[in-house]
Amino acid sequence: MQGRSVRLLHITDPHLHAHTESRMRGIVTYETFNAVIDRVLADPDPPDAVLATGDLVQDETLAGYLLFRKAIERLDAPIFCLPGNHDAPDIMANVLQAAPFQLCGVASLAAWRLILLNTFSTGDDGGRLPQSELEFLRQALADHADHHVLVSLHHQPVPMGSRWLDGVGLRNADDLMDIIDRSPQVRALLWGHVHQASDRRRKGVRLMSTPSTCSQFLPNSDGFAVDSRPPGFRWLNLRPDGTIDSEIVWLE
Length: 252
Ligand SMILES: [Fe+2]
Fold this sequence. Notes:
CATH architecture: 4-Layer Sandwich
Bound molecules: fe (ii) ion
Oligomer: single chain
Strand content: 25-35%
Strand order of the largest sheet: 6-5-4-1-15-16
Number of domains: 1
Structural class: alpha/beta
CATH class: Alpha Beta
């Protein structure tokens, strides 16, 4: 078990609504979300686990979360979730409280541990890690010093090079990075929110964002702008030696 790679599916920002035909920026988000699930189901190599990093539902409705659950339960795997700025954390916690779902906390996958952070900040499209969440992270890292760790959150902890989007990132990213810099077992940070793909390195740690399962934002744009890229998602292969293979799949 410890010696095998983990195939992790990352989906993010589906922005579902109470009604299956509702649109956001012209896109029927429930349709594109199901198209992503269909693509995953057609893959001969199924996921060992699924990570969903927030903005699951756009209109803060119970019906929206029930649609999320109905669609993603088509995948036969544990599903790890964390909230984004558009989510309704209380409804989300009610709907996603039992297996196969896990909301926030630490998830175990062979030699890896996923630490799922909650950056939801009431009334703010940007995110924040309160002291309690920073303390949870410190403790989780202390408990898992001998594992490879992937830390995931909704908001970007580094600038994306887009002025409007970087105005709604993680407000206290320095607090997070101080902890990451002192934790050599952290291999990667992975987030949603920015509706675009990115993959870079900072002090040996892999930093990745993943496109939304609905519409994308135009990279490097100073003002809000929608990209013409299609829905997308990310595969990660978490190797037992702590390295990661990853690829984005676009629904062209
Ligand atoms: Fe989003």
